[in-house]
Every structure is written in C-alpha cells, then in structure tokens.
User: Which sequence fits this backbone?
C-alpha cells in the first residue's frame, strides 16, 4: 500500500501568514493527490484535486503543487476561518489513503 | 443542493452487527462512485469502501470480509452492513460522494454517524 506522510503534524501561525504543508508518498503517484480541510465536528471539505486544481468555490489563497512523491498545500494569507486540520489523499491506486493530518492552530 | 444524510450508528457490543444508511438528495447514488470513510475519535481519516456506478465494490483490508457496501437505487440510498464488529471499528462513519466517477475526488460528504463498539 502507498503511504502518505504529512509534515508537520501541527503548525502554529497567525492571520496573514503564509503556510506550507507537505505530503510525501512512499512511491511515485504522478499527480494523484487531493487535499481536504476539516474543522472540528464537521465533515472534510475538498480543497484541491489532482495536486494543483482548485475545487470550485475554494478561495484562491489556497494552492497545491507537486508530482511524483512530493506535494505541497500552501495558504498564501491565512484567514481566521483557515484554522483547521488538513489532509492529503493519494488516489493513484487502491487502497486509497490519507495522510495523518496537519493541525493548523492560531 | 446535494445532501447526504447518514444514520444507523450507535453503541454495539463486540461481535455484533450494524447497518448504516446514507440517504442522498440532489445526487444520484447509482450514477456516481459512493464511498464510506471513517474517523476514529481524535484520529485521521480512513477510507473504508467504495461502490462503483457499475456496481463493483472494493474494501480496505481492515474490513474486508466483515463489511458489505450496497445501494438501493429506488431509495437513492447507500448502505454499509457491518458484521463481526471490533473495538477498533469505533469511529465516525461518513459517506462521501465522488462525482469524478472513480478518481476518488470526494466532493460531497454527509455529517457522519457514530459507531461505538464496546461491551
């Protein structure tokens, strides 16, 4: 199975900061990565698919990049509503899997 | 507007069975890939199963042989039959709709239903 390793596991930042979260796959997975945001007590929300395509309705301060084994999610200027947990997901082959999550705190 | 509403969770003893439901509106279960994803308390996301629009099913190794995913097209509802439940199956179970038709792009989620396996 493909393992997805996210880093950091937690991150503290301030409103207006730029942050980057990294996800590394245990083997090459082309661009088969999605990113989700989850707030406490809520379902995850799809932010980015195919490594870099912004899901409709997601603010442009979110961006994704990478291919092969290394992927990043960036938030250009943190807003109060961005403090949440973020997960990467590999969709290259079954079983699809998620990273362990990155908790973004104020 | 797409709405996915899970139900059927609860407290069950180890070895017991439970059937979860996910009623969909604004989204046709039979025309899309539908998934179950679970989240143990305080933990990350774990994909559980998928049913393809064509009816093919697939499961995580952790539930294979114990869980069965199915759907009722007339009710536009997805199900997860869970047998031989274990303590490690305790989690919030989400149904997730994939409108990308198999690229595992989970763009629609329910609110989840909690399953607690304990004696």
Assistant:
């Amino acid at each position: 199975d493909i393992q997805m390793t996210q880093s950091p596991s937690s991150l503290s930042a301030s409103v207006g900061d730029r942050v980057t979260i990294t996800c590394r796959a245990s083997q090459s997975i082309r661009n088969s990565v999605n990113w989700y945001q989850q707030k406490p007590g809520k379902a995850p929300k799809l932010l980015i698919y195919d490594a870099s395509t912004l899901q409709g309705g997601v603010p442009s301060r979110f961006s994704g990049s990478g291919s092969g084994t290394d992927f990043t999610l960036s938030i250009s200027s943190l807003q109060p509503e961005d403090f949440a947990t973020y997960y990467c997901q590999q969709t290259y082959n079954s079983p699809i899997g998620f990273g362990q999550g990155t908790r973004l705190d104020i | 507007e797409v709405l996915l509403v899970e139900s059927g969770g609860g407290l069950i003893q180890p070895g017991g069975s439970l059937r979860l439901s996910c009623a969909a509106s604004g989204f046709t279960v039979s025309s899309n890939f539908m998934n179950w994803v679970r989240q143990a308390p305080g933990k990350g996301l774990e994909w559980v199963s998928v049913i393809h629009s064509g009816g093919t099913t697939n499961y995580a190794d952790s539930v294979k042989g114990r869980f069965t995913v199915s759907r009722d097209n007339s009710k536009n509802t997805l199900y997860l039959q869970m047998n031989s439940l274990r303590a490690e199956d305790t989690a919030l179970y989400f149904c997730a709709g994939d409108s990308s038709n198999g690229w595992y792009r989970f763009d629609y989620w329910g609110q989840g239903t909690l399953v607690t396996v304990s004696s």
User: Anything to note?
Assistant: The two ends of chain B are 40 Å apart (CA to CA). The CA atoms of residues 13 and 119 of chain B lie 5 Å apart.
